[in-house]
Specification:
The strands form 8 sheets. Strands 25, 27, 28, 29, 30, 31, 32, 35, 36 and 37 form a 10-stranded antiparallel sheet that branches. A 9-stranded mixed barrel has the order 1-12-10-9-5-6-7-4-13. Strands 14, 15, 20 and 24 form a 4-stranded mixed sheet that branches. A hairpin with a 2-residue loop joins strand 33 and strand 34. It folds into 3 domains: 187 residues, no CATH class; 121 residues, Immunoglobulin-like, CATH 2.60.40; 120 residues, Immunoglobulin-like. With 463 residues, it is mainly beta. Keywords: Signal.
Length: 463
């Protein structure tokens, strides 16, 4: 599955009432008449193509945009602007059925005097406040994959109608910092696959786990062999209040076909991070076309690696006070012989409270009157550790192709909302039972489990 890049033309329609006045002009132009009104217009030229790939580009209609523009002094414009503190302007969108375009409504905050400005941010939302499209900023992960990342200089001159060419990426679950822009015509064009990585690092000296600053290198033939262009990159570290935050790092790749690429991440030191890493703090892995496409099944859609931590191969770690989670993307289209399953007895959010050892079914909707069992989940508590064994009933005729398990301890008699463990995995060529142990917390009954799987089979389940 290819990630998509929207080629964007941003149309600034400058509606100028008065441009200037001279000493001979008997009717001087007031300050308001000298302002330039920015109006933006969008055309989704290939909406049908976009809708074929809901994992990459949502098919929701745009609702509004959040725009950030600074003046020549670096101050943000807008009613609450006037300083260097970020101020985003919300501008509503309307659909023009005659032209099949999305257009901005009039905004007093975008009535600007002629002069020099910088376009800093542009984010398109749907009517439910979900992000649809974002444009990468210069310091963002995807900045090298567009011609002109933000910020961009804008010169507003009275009496002109400048067109500014921009590029915007579809938004899906990646933890990135590259955002930006205003209005445009969209041409949907394909770009390379991307493979994304996020690193946590455990420091022996402090005993703490950190979001890591790291580099990603990719080679086309062997480790330290022929380097792949654009792959020697580092992620970014920002401060969220008193706490550092790390970005996911992605590399765009060609369709690999039957090729295997070789990758290495190296933990680096950073002024905002208290750990001390050395050259041995690395992790190597292979990238195939199958692993690129399989990564899109998951939310978050990245390879999560823990370096110098216990259970490094654990794809999910005990987490508190964070919203990083691991689950299957149930919007994916599956092969005809594969189905999504949910756990027997789950509530609408997918959770089951476990009060004793349980054997629960993995159920799928195959169109019959009742849900069909495609597998089982054996859930037990042994020495304050949760063990979950997933299995299927048809030996070599079926298998679990991917799964996501989340376990939460109880807190105050109810399910914890801040602490959990995740396991996610894609399974290739394995048709046996799958066992996982969760020991990040001291578990007691009750605890809470959510299990999602993709089961594939070559038998007729409805006979």
């Amino acid at each position: 599955m290819k990630n998509k890049l929207h080629k964007v033309t941003l149309l600034f329609l400058l509606l100028v009432v008065g441009a200037s006045c001279s000493t001979e002009d008997p009717h001087p132009v007031n300050e308001d008449e000298q302002k330039v009104q920015l109006t933006f217009k969008t055309v989704l030229a290939e909406m049908d193509q976009q809708q074929k790939d809901p994992v990459v580009c949502s098919d929701n209609d745009p609702g509004y945009v959040m725009i950030g523009i600074t003046d020549a002094m670096g101050n943000y414009i807008g009613e609450d602007g006037g300083s260097t503190e970020m101020n985003l302007i919300r501008v509503e969108l309307k659909y023009n059925s005659s032209l099949d375009t999305w257009e901005t409504l009039y905004s007093e905050e975008l009535a600007l005097p002629p002069g020099d400005y910088n376009l800093q941010h542009f984010i398109v939302y749907d009517t439910n406040d979900n992000v649809l499209w974002v444009a990468p900023r210069l310091e963002g992960t995807f900045s090298e994959y567009v011609d002109n990342p933000l910020p961009q200089e804008i010169e507003l001159i009275s009496g002109t109608k400048p067109y500014i060419s921009l590029e915007v990426l579809c938004f899906y679950a990646r933890n990135e910092e590259a955002y930006g822009y205003p209005f445009f015509d969209f041409d949907l064009i394909e770009v390379e696959n991307s493979y994304c990585v996020f690193i946590n690092y455990c420091d022996d000296a402090t005993g703490r786990e950190y979001p890591a600053y790291f580099s990603l290198e990719v080679w086309t033939d062997s480790y330290d062999g022929t380097p792949y262009p654009l792959s020697n990159n580092t992620n970014t570290i920002t401060m969220e209040g008193e706490w550092p935050s790390a970005s996911v790092l992605c590399v765009a790749l060609p369709d690999l076909g039957d090729q295997t690429f070789y990758a290495r991440v190296t933990v680096l030191n950073h002024d905002d991070l208290d750990y001390t890493a050395d050259a041995s703090d690395t992790f190597q892995f292979e990238i195939t076309q199958a692993s690129i496409e399989a990564q899109e099944i998951f939310i978050p859609a990245y390879h999560h690696v823990r370096i110098n931590c216990d259970n490094n191969n654990n794809p999910g770690d005990p987490t508190c006070d964070t919203d990083v989670r691991c689950k299957l993307n149930l919007r994916n289209e599956l092969s005809p012989n594969c189905e999504f399953t949910l756990l027997e007895g789950a509530n609408p959010e997918g959770w089951v409270q476990i009060n004793s050892d349980e054997d629960l079914q993995l159920l799928a909707d195959l169109g019959s009157e009742e849900l069909t069992a495609l597998g089982t989940a054996n859930i037990s508590l042994i020495n304050n550790e949760v063990q979950i064994i997933l299995d299927t009933p048809f030996d070599d005729s079926d298998r679990i192709a991917a799964y996501a398990i989340e376990v939460r301890p109880a807190s105050g008699g109810t399910m914890s909302t801040t602490c959990w463990e995740n396991y996610c995995a894609n399974i290739e060529g394995e048709d046996g039972a799958i066992a996982n142990t969760f020991n990040g917390f001291t578990y007691n009954y009750p605890f809470y489990v959510r299990i999602e799987t993709i089961n594939c089979f070559n038998v007729n389940l409805l006979d």
